[in-house]
């Protein structure tokens, strides 16, 4: 099915449909089946399935591409693949396990329900692992999302479930949300907030600001990758994680109290500062571990 010039409205039906919007601002519904919907030019609105409670296609695996223009794309039911395309798009995975790419532009991506994979790609994107307005049963649905910011200054929310957040390029802000999340800052000066749960946080390259939130959190100390700040280290429940395979020299860290902060050096180079913490060197050393859970005491 192919649209003509002008703003078209197209419905797919029950089979596996191919719908091409073409130019202008189109409204497209794949309905049931494994559909392919291409918006191409214009500000398009595309739904892979339908919202019917009685006639929903629960297994339809749709492919949706917005193309050029500021599009709204929604997979609805089924395991869908959504490619936003150029410009500033809003994409929602809907139910089930979806794969969403933002590509160019400053995009907003929602994984919604299911174990979703979201990639902002280029641009300053905002990624939500789940719809923040929905409360779902994490135990039965999983809600274990993988969120990749890509190039640009991205804002990434894990929300519910045990999520993995990757900032990748530039200066990103990441919030894990509920449950036990893993946050990886990568390039740039990033801000990481684990929030609730027992989280793993790694700032990566750059001078990062890291906050664990509630729970027993693990903070990875990165050698030769900037000087990070940890804002809320809890000496009674949090851990500082050193990379595996360290030499004897690399295990020789210097721990100094500077005002209300604790600074950790390696070969006279500042690795990390623990803000607003009063503790002895021995107490800090007792909270050092490695990725394989070996302790230095």
- Structural class category: mainly beta
Strand content: 25-35%
Give the number of helices. 3
Q: What's the total count of β strands? A: 28
Helix proportion of residues, in percent?
under 10%
Overview of the structural elements:
The protein is mainly beta. The chain has two domains: 9-229, no CATH class; 230-297, no CATH class. The protein contains three helices and 28 strands. It has helices at 138-141, 248-251, 281-285; strands at residues 9-11, 18-20, 27-29, 36-38, 45-47, 63-65, 72-74, 81-83, 90-92, 99-101, 108-110, 117-119, 126-128, 146-148, 155-157, 164-166, 173-175, 182-184, 191-193, 200-202, 209-211, 218-220, 228-230, 239-242, 254-258, 261-266, 269-274, 288-290. The strands form two sheets. A 15-stranded mixed beta sheet has the order 1-3-5-7-9-11-13-15-17-19-21-23-27-26-25. Strands 2-4-6-8-10-12-14-16-18-20-22-24-28 form a 13-stranded parallel beta sheet, with no helix packed on it. The chain is elongated.
Could you provide a short overview of the structure?
The chain is mainly beta. It has helices at residues 138-141, 248-251, 281-285; strands at 9-11, 18-20, 27-29, 36-38, 45-47, 63-65, 72-74, 81-83, 90-92, 99-101, 108-110, 117-119, 126-128, 146-148, 155-157, 164-166, 173-175, 182-184, 191-193, 200-202, 209-211, 218-220, 228-230, 239-242, 254-258, 261-266, 269-274, 288-290. It has a 15-stranded mixed beta sheet with strand order 1-3-5-7-9-11-13-15-17-19-21-23-27-26-25.
């Amino acid at each position: 099915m192919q649209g003509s010039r002008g703003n078209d409205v197209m419905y797919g039906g029950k089979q596996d449909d191919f719908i091409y919007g073409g130019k202008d601002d189109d409204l497209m519904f794949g309905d049931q089946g494994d559909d392919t919907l291409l918006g191409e030019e214009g500000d398009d609105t595309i739904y892979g399935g339908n919202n019917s409670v009685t006639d929903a296609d629960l297994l339809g695996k749709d492919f949706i591409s917005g193309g050029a223009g500021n599009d709204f794309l929604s997979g609805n039911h089924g395991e869908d693949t959504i490619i936003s395309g150029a410009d500033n798009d809003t994409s929602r995975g809907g139910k089930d396990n979806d794969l969403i790419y933002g590509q160019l532009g400053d995009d907003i991506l929602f994984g919604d329900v299911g174990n979703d994979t979201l990639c902002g790609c280029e641009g300053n994107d905002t990624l939500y692992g789940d719809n923040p307005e929905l409360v779902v049963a994490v135990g039965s649905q999983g809600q274990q999302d993988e969120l990749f910011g890509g190039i640009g200054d991205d804002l990434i929310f894990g929300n519910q479930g045990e999520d993995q957040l990757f900032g990748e390029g530039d200066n990103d802000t990441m919030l894990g949300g509920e449950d036990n999340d893993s946050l990886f800052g990568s390039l740039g000066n990033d801000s990481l907030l684990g929030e609730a749960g027992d989280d793993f946080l790694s700032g990566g390259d750059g001078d990062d600001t890291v906050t664990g939130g509630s729970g027993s959190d693990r903070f990875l100390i990165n050698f030769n990758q900037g000087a990070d700040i940890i804002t809320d280290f809890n000496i009674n429940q949090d851990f500082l994680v050193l990379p595996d395979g360290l030499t004897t020299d690399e295990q020789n860290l210097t721990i100094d109290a500077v005002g209300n902060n604790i600074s950790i050096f390696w070969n006279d180079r500042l690795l990390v500062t623990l803000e607003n913490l009063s503790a002895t060197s021995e107490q800090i050393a007792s909270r050092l571990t490695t990725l394989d859970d070996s302790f230095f005491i």
